[in-house]
Write a structure and sequence with these properties.
By secondary structure, the protein is an alpha/beta fold. Helices cover about 35% and strands about 30% of the residues. The chain contains five helices and five strands. The radius of gyration is 14 Å and the shape is globular. It has a single domain, classed as Mannitol-specific EII, Chain A (3-Layer(aba) Sandwich). The chain has a five-stranded mixed β-sheet with strand order 1-4-5-3-2, sandwiched between helices.
């Protein structure tokens, strides 16, 4: 199911950003220009991240799965972003703590049932350290699935 929402034009390897907002500002150019989302999607993600952080500390690595703003999604998608240098984000399980994230899956879905199904599958995938290492090396998630 995940593969149908992955698009090569939304895969960004080895990017450098000073923070989460900088990252969103950059990928929003692609998301908006290619009609995946409306401009308001960025603010919706920033707000949601403040209230409900998406950073996850796993076994030896940290990822984030920013999502939300379904009303601004024009075409369902999963965007993969790997970073040269990690950015600080707050933990999902303990919002007062931050962690260093170097892989993000920015997702946008218009319908909640699709969103939940994909989020569940993605949560299963990110728990595989080999997959995460492959992604850090530049292997496309599309070729892995």
């Amino acid at each position: 199911m995940l593969k149908e929402y992955l698009y090569e034009d939304l895969v960004f390897f080895e990017k450098e950003y000073k923070d989460y907002e900088d990252l969103l500002s950059d990928i929003m150019k692609t998301l908006v220009s290619k009609n995946y989302v409306e401009n308001e999607f960025k603010d919706a993600l920033l707000e949601r991240e403040k209230e409900f952080p998406t950073g996850l500390q796993l076994d030896g690595y940290a990822v984030a799965i920013p999502h939300g703003g379904s009303q601004y999604v024009l075409k369902d998608f999963i965007s993969l972003v790997t970073l040269k240098n990690p950015i600080r984000m707050n933990r999902m399980d303990n919002p007062e703590e931050s962690l260093e994230v170097d892989i993000l899956f920015v997702i946008g879905f218009g319908k909640s049932e699709t969103h939940l199904q994909c989020l569940k599958q993605l949560m299963g995938l990110i728990q595989d350290p080999k997959l995460i290492e492959d992604l850090k090396k530049g292997t496309s998630l599309i070729s892995i699935l």
